[in-house]
Specification:
- The complex is a heterodimer of chains A (about 260) and B (about 260).
- Chain A starts with 10 loop residues before the first helix and ends with a helix.
- Chain A has helices spanning about 10-35, 45-55, 60-90, 95-110, 115-125, 125-150, 155-165, 170-205, 210-220, 225-255.
- Chain A is an all-alpha fold.
- Chain A has 10 helices and no strands.
- Chain B folds into 2 domains: about 1-75 and about 155-265, 3-Layer(aba) Sandwich (Rossmann fold), CATH 3.40.50; about 85-150, no CATH class.
- Helix content of chain B is about 40%, strand content about 25%.
- The longest helix of chain B has about 30 residues, at about 235-265.
- Chain B is globular.
- The chains are: A mainly alpha (about 260), B alpha/beta (about 260).
- Chains A and B meet through helix 7 and helix 8 of A and strand 6 and helix 3 of B.
């Protein structure tokens, strides 16, 4: 059994992670300075670090982040509403589920972002195209996890509902949906992550929007330190999103 | 109060039809505790599911206060063998659940839920979640929740099966207290002979498949009753008497299972 002392307490793992990151960056810095890595392809980590202030103060990265966040929120809302609804429909209609489930799973693995020219034609070069691609990318896990969560509700809990003579609507609202919620949330979390990845990717491809467009702009200017700083900023946003949703998932699961 | 007449239930298996229940009949008087006991595979849980309305009988009927019932009925409250509390609701919210379904105002249902909480001896655990309780405590919450719906008949399917022997006796004491206080008509399905004798006024002994009523044993032990009765000579005599009936059925079940296993290999 791992004791708190074995695992290094609360701050031990965080400190070790940070120290490892700093160590790796220090090694890369050394390799670039020595000339083992081309500085025109990979900038010095110290230069990237110094660029953070510039991208925040001069380049307005926070404003671009808010733009991307608004797109992600729109796509995420659509993923939740449509994904959960379709998941409920597939749960209720066995024939639909048998017909569609494998196709939906295949869609999750498909590089939908490559369809961006089609979306450009349909919706134009604007935020709607980005939101729609994000929405479609995030939809499959939301649907599949909703079906899984509802199907996985323990038979005994359903029988409790039947023994109290619940109507189908009551059975769904008071037993099935709350029982399935942790699994549904996992689907929403995955869906939002897929949506965010594709949103930033499409912003880069069509040179429109928030953070993705920003990275494209910096690449075109060949401002490599700032470009890498922007990429790390995107990674930090993803990590922040992951930690936030993990907290929510833990809060949802605290009673179980 | 409850009459079961000629229940027949068949299940289709791979290459045969299995008769789980073969004209099972018995009745439960008002305020009585009746146990149904039998070996594994005798159809006890099928009886539970039919009376509770979770499955239909192929023949026969269930009559509650003179009315034939089909499907779940508000007069019958069910306590299940498996863990059945809602993990996302606190203890008091679990118990208030049937009152919520009945449309009671929040203050009223919480107040009444607290009464039932006290009845099962869980005061102070109102805001706990089931995951924070032991198995026995969770089963008490399930019992309180069922009682909160004011059933005329309490139907319990091996409610203590997942608990250790000591907790079973103590929880049996608690159920006895509640039953005696409320004069609750109770039908208990169990495979535990001591539990059946501890709690019941009569015990229906079932045969191995197809399940039929073999005998009804009147448990002539004094009331009010506690688990202390388990040490009495009379208690042990009843346990021995019921085991004599069950031994033959349990052996038949075991032999059939072994024969089936040999055929499969």
């Amino acid at each position: 059994m791992t004791t708190p002392r074995d695992s290094g307490g609360t701050w031990g793992p965080i400190a070790l992670g940070l120290a490892t990151l700093v160590g790796v960056l220090a090694v890369i810095e050394a390799m670039i300075r020595i000339g083992w890595i081309n500085a025109f392809i990979v900038p010095l980590p110290s230069a990237v670090l110094l660029s953070f202030e510039r991208i925040i103060v001069e380049e307005g990265v926070l404003k671009r982040f808010l733009f991307t966040a608004a797109e992600a929120l729109s796509a995420g809302t659509l993923v939740a509403l449509v994904g959960i609804s379709l998941g409920v429909l597939l749960y209720r209609r066995q024939i639909l589920r048998l017909a569609c489930e494998n196709w939906i799973a295949a869609l999750a693995a498909a590089p939908l972002v490559l369809l961006y020219p089609l979306f450009l034609v349909i919706f134009g070069r604007n935020a709607v195209t980005i939101v729609m691609i994000g929405f479609l990318s995030g939809l499959p896990p939301a649907i599949l996890k909703t079906v899984e969560g509802l199907s996985g509700t323990r038979r005994t809990l359903i029988d409790v509902g039947r023994s109290f003579n619940l109507s189908p609507s009551q059975q769904f609202r008071k037993i099935l949906f709350p029982a399935a919620l942790p699994t549904i949330f996992v689907g929403l979390r995955l869906g939002l992550m897929f949506a965010l990845i594709n949103i930033v990717g499409v912003e880069f491809l069509i040179n429109f929007g928030g953070l993705g467009q920003f990275v494209n702009e910096l690449a075109e200017r060949y401002d490599l330190p700032a470009m890498y700083a922007a990429i790390f900023f995107v990674i930090l946003v993803s990590v922040g999103f992951f930690l936030l949703t993990e907290r929510i998932e833990r809060w949802l699961g605290r009673a179980r | 109060m409850l009459r079961v007449e000629g229940l027949v239930k068949r299940f289709a298996a791979a290459d045969e039809t299995i008769t789980a229940l073969d004209h099972v009949s018995f009745d439960v008087a008002q305020g009585e505790v009746l146990s149904v006991i039998g070996p594994s595979g005798c159809g006890k849980s099928t009886v539970f599911n039919i009376i509770g309305g979770l499955t239909d009988a192929d023949e026969g009927r269930v009559i509650v206060e003179g009315q034939t019932v089909s499907g779940p009925h508000p007069a019958i409250g069910m306590v299940f063998q498996e863990e059945s509390t809602f993990p996302w609701r606190t203890v008091v919210e679990n118990i208030a659940f049937p009152l919520e379904i009945a449309g009671k105002a929040k203050d009223e249902r919480i107040a009444r839920a607290r009464e039932y909480l006290a009845l099962v001896g869980l005061q102070g655990f109102e805001r706990h979640y089931p995951a924070e309780l032991s198995g026995g405590m969770r089963q008490r919450v399930a019992i309180a929740r069922t009682l909160a719906s004011h059933p005329k008949i309490l139907l319990m399917d091996e409610p203590f099966a997942a608990l250790d022997e000591q907790t079973r006796f103590l929880l049996g004491d608690k159920v006895l207290q509640i039953q005696q206080k409320l004069a609750q008509t109770t039908l208990l399905v169990t495979h535990n002979i001591a539990e059946a004798v501890q709690l019941s006024d009569r015990v229906v002994v079932m045969t191995y498949r197809p399940g039929r009523v073999k005998r009804v044993v009147a448990i002539d032990l004094p009331r009010p009753r506690t688990s202390e009765v388990a040490g009495s000579v009379a208690f042990q005599a009843f346990v021995g008497e019921i085991w004599n009936d069950l031994r033959e059925e349990a052996s038949r079940g075991m032999l059939e299972a072994e024969a089936h296993s040999r055929r499969a290999t």
